[in-house]
Amino acid sequence: MGRQCSSSVKQKLRKGLWSPEEDEKLFDHISKFGVGCWSSVPKLAGLQRCGKSCRLRWINYLRPDLKRGMFSQEEEDLILNLHEALGNRWAQIASQLPGRTDNEIKNFWNSSLKKKLQKQGIDPNTHKPIVAAEIQVKMEKDYSELQKSSKQAAYDPIFMSEFQETIDFNTPSSYRPYDPGCGFNSMPNLTNFDHQTDYSDSSGAYLMKESSSNSSNPRMEAKTDMMSSFSLESLFEFQFDGADERSYALASLSQELSEAFQ
DNA sequence: AACTGTACCAACCGCAGTCGT
DNA sequence: AACGACTGCGGTTGGTACAGT
């Protein structure tokens, strides 16, 4: 319960839709005295409402500078652009649209624009094609698991000792053949991603794992996967044409690694 | 005509931030 | 620093209108 309206316990306050009489009282009061302390408005205007309710009614309905009617195409485009940049910061978005309120824009978004985007196959939260957005979520999840796994490995002294013996950090070529980047040129554009097709074979982790598949030593396999995680981290330094391709590769790689430590 | 589902929108609620004491 | 009063914001709810069956 909002603090301001909790006074309704002491004094019976009206709720729900505003009557024309109430609107008139509030409008007259603000016209005469201007917008001041909202908590004192109900008493001074002779209304059985809380100040918060009066403020909302003025801002969203009674204000004389409000624009009425449908949103124009220009306004719609502006909302889309601003939402992409700002997210659900309705007040900030409204500040860029004279005569429109945050509540109005929020309602317009939830009832119309959001569905419009979904129909076009665009995720309204990310403004990206839905498949790509799903993959990005998966990538973020898998990568955090990967980081966890890598940390666990780092606490295993035997593992780390063997790992350091294996890798010559001065010659990156020792693991370059497994560089995940090598599979990317053949990766599909994920904005047109086909759910039915398994592209995991294109990942560096797969190529790497396959090369070490003769090993029956689980520790060696884990080591191999650890190496791929190094390549994976270096991936973040790369600039690829398509971030979505990187996302998919990361998701695939991190899954391989996390499985190795299970 | 009666019922059901959906869209729209006004208003409410709770939280967080700010300010004064 | 702690507290209460107030304001502003974003999420949610509930009522109404309308379309479809």
From TrEMBL:
One Gene Ontology term of the molecular function aspect: transcription cis-regulatory region binding
Coiled-coil regions, chain positions: none
Localization: Nucleus
Record carries keyword Transcription regulation: yes
Record key words, sorted: DNA-binding, Nucleus, Repeat, Transcription, Transcription regulation
CDD domains according to UniProt: SANT (cd00167)
Domain HTH myb-type, chain residue ranges per copy: 10-66, 67-117
Any matching Pfam family: Myb_DNA-binding
Annotated protein name in UniProt: Myb-related protein Hv33-like
One GO term describing the cellular component: nucleus
Span of domain Myb-like: 10-62, 63-113
PROSITE patterns: HTH_MYB, MYB_LIKE
Source organism of the structure: Salvia divinorum (Maria pastora)
